[in-house]
């Protein structure tokens, strides 16, 4: 009895393959079976042979992007024909709830959805699933669909707006694969081998171990607490162990690993809120995620682009600010880029429903860095500072026509050696920020937007906002 060729769900009608590349194809068949793949943009076929377990993998050369619909034949003991395949640009998007927020929930959703007829944008939504070990296949129901009012309705809005902007600027087909889960930390999406031996990130496993130990006694105690105070919050051990999808690596295993090594151009990412409690670990966490994905995807150091955490009324503004600072520091990783978003958040709404500017900013990062388009993609980023005669001089990257909107710079603070921050005065001289206060004769530190603010107003020539920053490394100094 011969086995039949089977393909991962990623390989189907309506798929997009990365143009001008050697793209990975793989699947299952009978052991040692000869597999012949024929594509209509090449005269020759591609041949490989399954191993003793029936697994096979091959590279196929793609042509330049076009809007021509292609056919691919995969033949062994049986034949699979893939239709309506496009060659274009393929991107992967991921994150937590704001990346997940779907088109039917956006501002003016009826109008936006009705206008979303883009047959040459192809959408692939990875269905939610968790696993303790890396999997070889994603959940059933994940499939490629041409972008239409019906298919876009339950698709990530940020990813759709990214793809729409990319197609408009590049005039090629766009494939966007998205995998998201609200309320998840970056550790859920990171390969375990990149965390377990890391001196900082092994704390994650200690926390989960302690929560598992504590949940029994905490559950008993919580019953009594709840009787006395019906509004009492669950202990952390109960809250977290109820949410098994928040365990380290379980979403990487089920929703990312099976996509590898599908050939993509790069990744866009928006996440951070659920890591606030452990904000000081976030730089190591993002390095582990990015390097882990690149190593396991085996397609080189693909670009990883992301947005900084936006403005919101967080319960601990200092931790949110440290997340943003560590996102800024993540730019140390090669082939990364970021744009701040302090101007498009809402202090009273964690899930802003106007997702267009988020998607556009991600697209502009990609267009500028991966396609060399002359597009401004980033706001001012803190570079260095000097203390000169009672004033602090601060320089920035992306500082062309540095300015603040309004009469004065908001949310700028200065401190001396006593570590007591006071509101400062600031002016701009030759695209540098000069900060001082009559209350601080010998300043040593400046902080900008290091609080829950909806009024951060430092921008550059393109009206892109500055990243919040601090010049000090003091701990537990909170600016309300």
Kindly, what is the distance between the CA atoms of the first and last residues, rounded to a whole number of angstroms? 71 Å
Quaternary structure state of the chains depicted: single chain
Helix fraction by DSSP (H/I, runs of at least 4) = 10-25%
In what range is the share of β-strand residues?
A: 25-35%
Helix and strand composition category = alpha/beta
Main sheet characteristics = 11 strands, mixed
Secondary structure tally, helices: 10
Query: What's the gyration radius in Å?
Result: 25 Å
Uncertain runs are none
Give average pLDDT, whole number: 97
Give me the count of strands.
23
Shape annotation = globular
Could you describe the 3D structure shown?
By secondary structure, the chain is an alpha/beta fold. It has 10 helices and 23 strands. Strand 12 (304-307), helix 9 and strand 13 (336-339) form a beta-alpha-beta unit. The model has no long low-confidence stretch (mean pLDDT 97).
Could you give a short description of this structure?
The chain is α/β, with parallel strands linked by helices and 480 residues long. Helix content is 23%, strand content 26%.
């Amino acid at each position: 009895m011969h086995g039949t060729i089977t393909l991962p769900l990623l390989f189907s009608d309506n798929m997009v393959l990365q143009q001008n590349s050697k793209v990975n194809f793989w699947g299952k068949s009978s052991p040692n079976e000869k597999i012949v793949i024929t594509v209509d943009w090449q005269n020759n076929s591609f041949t490989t042979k399954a191993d003793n377990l029936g697994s096979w993998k091959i590279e196929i050369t793609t042509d330049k992007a076009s809007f021509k619909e292609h056919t691919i034949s995969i033949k062994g003991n049986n034949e699979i024909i893939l239709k309506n395949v496009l060659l274009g640009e393929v991107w992967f998007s991921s994150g937590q709830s704001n990346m997940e927020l779907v088109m039917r929930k956006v501002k003016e959703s009826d109008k936006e959805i009705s206008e979303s007829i883009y047959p040459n944008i192809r959408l692939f939504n990875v269905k939610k699933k968790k696993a303790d070990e890396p999997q070889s296949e994603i959940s059933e129901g994940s499939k490629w669909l041409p972008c239409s009012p019906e298919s876009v309705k339950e698709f990530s809005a940020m990813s759709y707006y990214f793809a729409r902007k990319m197609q408009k600027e590049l005039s090629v087909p766009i494939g966007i694969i998205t995998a998201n889960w609200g309320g998840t930390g970056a550790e859920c999406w990171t390969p375990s081998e990149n965390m377990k031996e890391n001196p900082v990130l092994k704390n994650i496993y200690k926390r989960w171990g302690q929560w598992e130990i504590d949940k029994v006694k905490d559950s008993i105690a919580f019953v009594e607490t709840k009787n006395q105070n019906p509004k009492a919050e669950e202990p952390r051990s109960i809250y977290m162990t109820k949410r098994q999808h928040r365990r380290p690596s379980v979403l990487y295993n089920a929703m990312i690993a099976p996509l590898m090594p599908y050939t993509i151009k790069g990744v866009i990412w928006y996440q951070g809120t659920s890591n606030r409690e452990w904000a000081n670990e976030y730089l190591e966490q993002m390095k582990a995620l990015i390097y882990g994905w690149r190593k396991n995807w085996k397609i080189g150091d693909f670009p990883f682009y992301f947005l900084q955490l936006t403005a919101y009324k967080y319960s601990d503004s200092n931790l949110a600010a440290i997340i943003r600072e560590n996102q800024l520091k993540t730019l140390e990783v090669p082939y990364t880029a970021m744009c701040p978003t302090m101007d498009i958040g809402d202090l009273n709404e964690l899930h802003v429903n106007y997702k267009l500017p988020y998607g556009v900013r991600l697209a502009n990062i990609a267009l500028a860095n991966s396609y060399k388009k002359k597009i401004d993609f980033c706001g001012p980023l803190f570079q260095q500072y000097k203390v000169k005669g009672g004033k602090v001089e601060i320089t920035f990257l992306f500082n062309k026509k540095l300015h603040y909107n309004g009469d004065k710079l908001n949310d700028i603070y200065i401190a001396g050696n006593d570590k007591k921050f006071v509101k400062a005065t600031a002016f701009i001289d030759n695209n540098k920020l000069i900060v001082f206060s009559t209350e601080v004769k010998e300043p040593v530190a400046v902080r900008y937007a290091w609080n829950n603010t909806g009024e951060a107003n430092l921008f550059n020539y393109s009206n892109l906002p500055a990243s919040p920053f601090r010049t000090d490394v003091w701990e537990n100094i909170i600016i309300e």
